[in-house]
Specification:
The protein is about 15% helix and about 35% strand. By secondary structure, it is mainly beta. The chain has five domains: about 120 residues, no CATH class; about 55 residues, Roll (Ubiquitin-like (UB roll)), CATH 3.10.20.90; about 55 residues, Ubiquitin-like (UB roll) (Roll), CATH 3.10.20.90; about 70 residues, Resuscitation-promoting factor rpfb fold, CATH 2.20.230; about 90 residues, Beta Barrel (Barwin-like endoglucanases). α1 packs across α3. The chain starts with about 30 loop residues before the first helix and ends with a strand.
Length: about 450
């Protein structure tokens, strides 16, 4: 018989039952006779137990009252007087007493004629009668009946260790719990915890370990696993490493309970940044415009700079940035023209000593190509070649054709004086001047002028 685990009750062997395969001749075949026989056997069993188990008080203590305890296990009955206050302490006292080797305290029911016909529930009921009656305490208190089941032997494997243990529990899970081998939903139990417990069964317990896993910028999480290495854990959790990612400790490291595993996620992105460049406003003076007036010569348009970067992130935090390209589009600045001309009083035309062209009194006529100009259109200079200011009546001539100071009359324009020259005034070409406040009413054309 296998050796029981420490602290466990010694399983009681069942005695060989020498039972005849033929029914007793004294037993009638009618159902009524069988009922009478069963009742008789039950009463005989009660009487046998009452006679076989002497009612004696424990000599351990005379001061404390004792209570009778009846133990029934594997066909054996045992009675004792106990001062135990709890069921556990009573069982501890029963230990070696409830054995077949103590003839004074044990009695096999199988030796009693017809004992095999007594069902276990009926036997327990009979024990209850005795406890309330013959086995009651000295002051009439009810005794305690304990029915012990025969322990089942099985082998428990956990990790690298295995041991033979005993349990009376009906399933594998209940047996593990009773043995103090608690388990949770993350542990692997083979066979399953709800498997009926049978003799010779091998039970394997594989404990899950708990590690703390941190992936990238995520919060650390407790993970229950049966993986053996860091790499196995990552595969179990579906964590795939990309190029540049790193793991601490290294993937080949064996896991241990409470270990912390950290995965650094490295990612690279291409980012484009666009920065605007604001236009500026440029002011320019125009002597042809009256003072206080302004005109927008060119509207402003903003420019921009486009830069492309390669950015590396570690656990969601920027680690490095490298510029790949840069494109600059300059702005179009706004140009505003401001008038600076001072309005002057109208100047009277010079007196004409002679008649205009076509008049019989005109001493000389000359056909010329006549254009017009202002100080601004001539380059911004307001002083003529003779030192006068450009205004209506000023005529630019080629001195080789018309000497400076010559007075003339131009039909459609009026009287003028040759006071200025110009690089484009060559030959029979004249340029008719206008002041900043004059009306530009001349159109370039050929005209016959009168040289006075």
């Amino acid at each position: 018989m296998p050796k029981p685990r420490p602290g466990a009750d010694t399983p009681q062997p069942r005695r060989n039952k020498a039972k005849s395969s033929q029914p007793s001749q004294t037993i009638a075949h009618s159902s009524s006779d069988r009922l009478h026989l069963a009742l008789g056997v039950a009463m005989a069993a009660v009487t046998l137990i009452a006679i076989a188990l002497p009612l004696t008080s424990s000599s351990a203590s005379a001061e404390r009252s004792t209570s009778p305890v009846l133990v029934v296990s594997g066909g054996f009955s045992s009675a004792l007087q106990s001062q135990a206050q709890t069921l556990v302490s009573a069982l501890a006292q029963v230990g070696p007493v409830a054995a077949a080797q103590e003839p004074g305290l044990s009695q096999s029911l199988d030796g009693f004629p017809g004992g095999a016909l007594v069902p276990r529930p009926l036997l327990v009921a009979a024990a209850g009668v005795l406890l309330r009656g013959a086995l009651a305490g000295p002051e009439g208190q009810q005794g305690l009946a304990i029915e012990l089941q025969e322990a089942v032997r099985f082998t428990l494997h956990e990790g690298d260790f295995s041991s033979t243990v005993f349990s009376t529990r009906p399933t594998v899970g209940a047996a593990l719990t009773a043995l103090g081998a608690e388990y949770d939903e993350y542990d692997i139990i083979l066979p399953a915890p709800d498997t009926p417990l049978t003799g010779g069964l091998h039970v394997f317990v594989e404990r899950a370990i708990t590690v703390k896993l941190t992936v990238g910028a995520k919060k650390p999480a407790d993970v229950h696993t049966h993986a053996e290495t860091v790499a196995g854990l990552l595969a179990e959790e579906g964590v795939k490493l990309s190029e540049g990612d790193s793991v601490r400790p290294k993937p080949s490291r064996h896991l241990s309970d409470g270990m912390a595993i950290s995965v650094t996620v490295v990612g690279e992105k291409i980012e484009v940044e666009e920065t605007p460049i604001s236009f500026r406003t440029i002011y320019r003076n125009d002597p042809d415009l009256p003072q206080g007036q302004s005109v927008v010569a060119q509207f402003g348009i903003d420019g921009y700079v486009v830069r492309e970067y390669a950015v590396v992130y570690r656990n969601g935090i920027e680690a490095s940035r490298k510029m790949l390209s840069e494109v600059i589009v300059a702005p179009d600045h706004e140009i505003v023209v401001q008038g600076t001309a001072v309005v002057a009083a109208a100047v009277a035309a010079p007196s004409a000593p002679s008649a205009p062209s076509g008049d019989p009194n005109c001493p000389r006529t000359l056909t010329v190509w006549a254009t017009w100009y202002t100080a601004a259109s001539a380059g911004g200079y307001g002083t003529t070649a003779t030192g006068t200011s450009v205004q209506k009546g000023t005529v630019a001539v080629d001195p080789r054709v018309i000497p400076l100071g010559t007075q003339m009359y131009i039909p459609g324009y009026g009287y003028g004086v040759a006071e200025d020259t110009g690089g484009a005034i060559i030959g029979n070409i004249i340029d008719l001047g206008y002041g900043p406040n004059d009306v530009y009413d001349w159109g370039s054309r050929y005209v016959d002028i009168c040289i006075v």
